[in-house]
Specification:
Elements lengths: L1 H15 L8 H14 L5 H10 L1 H12 L9 H18 L4 E5 L5 H12 L6 E6 L2 H9 L1 E2 L9 H7 E4 L2 E4 L1 H4 L2 E5 L11 E6 L8 H14 E9 L13 E5 L2 E4 L1
Parallel strand pairs: 1-2, 1-7, 2-6, 7-8
Antiparallel strand pairs: 3-5, 4-5, 8-10, 9-10
The structure holds S-adenosylmethionine.
Amino acid sequence: MELEFEFFKEWVKKKLKIDLHAYKEKQLHRRIATVMQSAGCSDLRSYAALIEKDEQVRRVFLDYITINVTEFFRNKEIFDEFEAAINEVLIPRFKNIKIWSAACSIGAEPYSVAMIMDRHNIKGAKILATDIDDTILRRAKEARFKDGELKNVTEGELSKYFKKTGSEYFLSEDIKKHVQFKKHDLLLDPYEKNFHAVICRNVTIYFKNEAKNEVYQKINESLEKGGIFFTGATEAIYNPASFGFRKLSTFLYEKV
Ligand SMILES: C[S@@+](CC[C@H](N)C(=O)[O-])C[C@H]1O[C@@H](n2cnc3c(N)ncnc32)[C@H](O)[C@@H]1O
């Protein structure tokens, strides 16, 4: 089975341009086995052939592997800290704030940032939002959300920024227009530079240490000096100095 996984990862890298070697093995193998069986295959070679042939099977595989769970203002107390850092650290330091939400899933994260900008009447901010997954980016651009994804949005902001149609909430153009979406793979693609904040949450937990460290280093290089890196609730960095960061709090790091 090990050899089969090696073959499969090589195949996925070549054909689908995703580097599964960098993801933690145990949970990745478990997920691949589950999604392979649900497609009715009993071995990885026939599953690879089916993925190649059948677009629907390919879609299901990619969705399952990339794990898209998210919500607005995820881990609200931590998001509040980031909001305070925007006001107290970034605004006094930089003009025309440029923020990157990496691995943004359906957009709840970058749109939360756009709402913060609106709350504080911060003009000229640019928010880039990226993900490896094309389908999820299409959904993000539509900006339609379900109840569960909005539980940290206040009643006031729900009626100010969203229009409810059936069971879905559609985000207003005023907020949407501040976010630009683009496909980007954190493991394989070059990183843009000159950001004042990079938000990269709940994705490096799936990467092996080596890959995770490389991502931290590249995020550091894509920030301006004095810019902020905002990590996930389970992604505290133990040795921030080795990546060129100074710890502001458990989930916020400043580029030195
Ligand atoms: C759990 S979601 C996190 C969403 C959001 N950042 C949050 O914290 O709520 C993980 C996202 O990482 C994306 N992802 C997985 N591997 C990636 C990679 N190598 N490069 C960029 N995005 C990736 C997935 O497609 C998924 O949308």
